[in-house]
Automatic annotation (TrEMBL):
<dbReference type="InterPro" id="IPR046879">
    <property type="entry name" value="KANL3/Tex30_Abhydrolase"/>
</dbReference>
<dbReference type="Pfam" id="PF20408">
    <property type="entry name" value="Abhydrolase_11"/>
</dbReference>
<protein>
    <submittedName>
        <fullName>Hydrolase</fullName>
    </submittedName>
</protein>
<dbReference type="InterPro" id="IPR026555">
    <property type="entry name" value="NSL3/Tex30"/>
</dbReference>
<keyword id="KW-0378">Hydrolase</keyword>
<feature type="domain" description="KANL3/Tex30 alpha/beta hydrolase-like">
    <location>
        <begin position="24"/>
        <end position="205"/>
    </location>
</feature>
<dbReference type="InterPro" id="IPR029058">
    <property type="entry name" value="AB_hydrolase_fold"/>
</dbReference>
<dbReference type="GO" id="GO:0016787">
    <property type="term" value="F:hydrolase activity"/>
</dbReference>
Length: 209
């Protein structure tokens, strides 16, 4: 594992690399507006994917690196992501643009422009909780590249059944919330819930070249 600081027009970002021994893809994934790269799904992917030929680059947006508590506007998040992209493509491999929550929105908005091979959207925030009329579906539908959405069955930002038809694939993590946490009374353990996430991404990335 190595860490790299990258200067962007939005400030300094940080990339933590989890390299595969024989990489064929890079998965670049950023955090949401309420947490960092220690999120359980990002950590699980960084632990699992390198054994399957996918180098994982976990990206901390400049606002997190600067120690700020509140995420900036989407435009600023996109600026930070664009600034990190040259470092992500430096290994010379196809890059999957990914993230959880707000990071998933950034990945969708910038995928075509940056030449991403695909998009991984973890806990895509389809709408603010309780506000389904404020849909962000267009960002997802306009990604323009192969897209995998992994969504908790009880995500208040958008349950799987609320998602529109489109070119994306959607995998549900039953009974999980926005952070893929499952209640103690759930039919699956927390470890099993995370395995649904990692198994889905391993299978999906195996079909990408």
């Amino acid at each position: 594992m190595t860490t790299e600081t990258i200067t962007t027009d939005a400030g300094d970002a940080r990339v933590t690399w989890h390299p595969a021994a024989k990489p064929r893809l890079v998965l670049a994934a950023s955090h949401g507006a309420g947490g960092g790269i220690e999120a359980r799904d990002l950590a699980a992917l960084a632990a699992v994917l390198p054994a399957h030929g996918v180098t994982v680059a976990l990206v901390e947006q400049p606002w997190r690196v600067a120690g700020k508590k509140v995420a900036p506007a989407p435009k600023t998040l996109d600026t930070g992501w664009r600034g990190v992209w040259p470092a992500l493509t430096a290994p010379g491999l196809p890059v999957i643009s990914g993230g959880r929550s707000a990071g998933a929105r950034v990945a969708c908005r910038t995928a075509k422009e940056l030449g991403a091979r695909a998009v991984l959207a973890l806990s895509f925030p389809l709408h603010p909780p309780g506000r389904p009329e404020k849909s962000r579906a267009r960002e997802l539908l306009d990604a323009g590249v192969p897209t995998l959405v992994v969504q908790g069955g009880n995500d208040p930002f958008g349950r799987p059944a609320e998602f529109p038809e489109g070119g994306h694939e959607l995998v549900e993590v039953a009974q999980a919330d926005h952070g893929f946490a499952v209640p103690k009374r759930a039919d699956l353990t927390q470890e099993e819930a995370l395995r649904v996430v990692t198994d889905a991404v391993v299978r999906w990335t195996a079909a990408l070249h």
